[in-house]
Amino acid sequence: MIKEFFNYRRPVVSFEIFPPKTEDRMEIVSRLASQFKELNPSFISVTYGAGGTTRDTTIEVATYLSRLGFEVMAHLTGVGHTAGEIDDILSRLKAGGVDDILALRGDPPKGVENFDYAAGDFKFAVDLVRHIRRRGGFGVAAAAYPEGHIASPRIKLDWMHLKEKVDAGVDFLITQLYFDNRVFYNFLDSVRRLGIACPISAGILPVLSADALKRMVTLCGAAIPAKLWDIIDKYADDHESLEKAGIEYATAQVHDLVEYGVDGVHLYTLNRAEWVAAVLKDTGLDRYEHLPEAWEWQQVQYGELPPGGRNPAVWQVVERRDL
Ligand SMILES: Cc1cc2nc3c(=O)[nH]c(=O)nc-3n(C[C@H](O)[C@H](O)[C@H](O)COP(=O)(O)OP(=O)(O)OC[C@H]3O[C@@H](n4cnc5c(N)ncnc54)[C@H](O)[C@@H]3O)c2cc1C
User: Fold this and answer.
1) Per-residue pLDDT reduced to its tens digit, 15-69
2) Is 131 strand, coil or helix?
3) What is the rounded distance in angstroms from the CA atom of residue 74 to the CA atom of residue 66?
4) Same-domain status, 100 and 12
């Protein structure tokens, strides 16, 4: 199960991809997989279309990556599904070698107004977490919102619901994208005080286009710091320079997170490997094996330290084992 990685490697580095919509999707995924192999992520997560719109392709892509030897987590949303349908999807994922699920409530399919969340078997993500736990056999992760979920009337209320979700049996959390690490650190302090002790991976998305950013921010409500607005304004007519500056901004965020000693970094890849490679290289995260034994061995043999210095969590493990 993926949760084990957090016992050995900080940060756990994960990549998120979405199943391409085109007929040649498996060729695209195959190309991405060979690029990602070089980058050695701890795991790859595969998104799930709102209301089950990518049910088959999520299973197909997750199974394919798992058979290639990647550790894979499939996203799964409860909205619009019956418990029987969820069980069927879980069985198919299990048969495909997928042992971890990101359990989500999900959003209504596009264009559906006044969607009734209570009509299905899963009103909130916590209901799906409980269902998967009752069934057994899977590691379970869930989503967290450093700025509060966009539909939540109060940020603290959202984090109390987050605590209920974690208490229902979540192994680790992955955050929604955000652009100011201070927001993430404040969120960490607050939820740790609420008693949420599980590992939390920071979700990072680079700004590769102004329009895409605006769309994304409208959907999820992430605040854009002045520094990022300056970049967007400065390169409004220069797509290439905007991309470069967006990747540099994401790199600086990741660098700072590594120095802080974050549990995990989850990169929203947008199905593109080149920016991911650039960020990992510039932050030194490309240099470590994800296999715990190999990593510890390498550190002990060569006295190498993780980027950002000696991470007490990792070295406790090394010392406890008396290597
Ligand atoms: C890392 C990540 C990956 C994602 N991947 C996908 C994906 O693959 N496919 C997709 O469709 N969407 C995805 N999403 C988006 C997600 O589905 C939406 O943000 C959705 O609106 C909320 O899902 P959730 O699991 O956080 O819901 P929940 O945890 O259920 O929270 C939803 C809202 O309900 C509130 N709430 C929770 N419990 C209660 C309660 N007991 N009583 C009252 N209110 C409550 C919360 O405060 C929040 O406002 C992802 C989000 C993240 C952060």
Assistant:
1) 999 999 999 999 999 999 999 999 999 999 999 987 777 889 999 999 999 999 9
2) helix
3) 10
4) yes
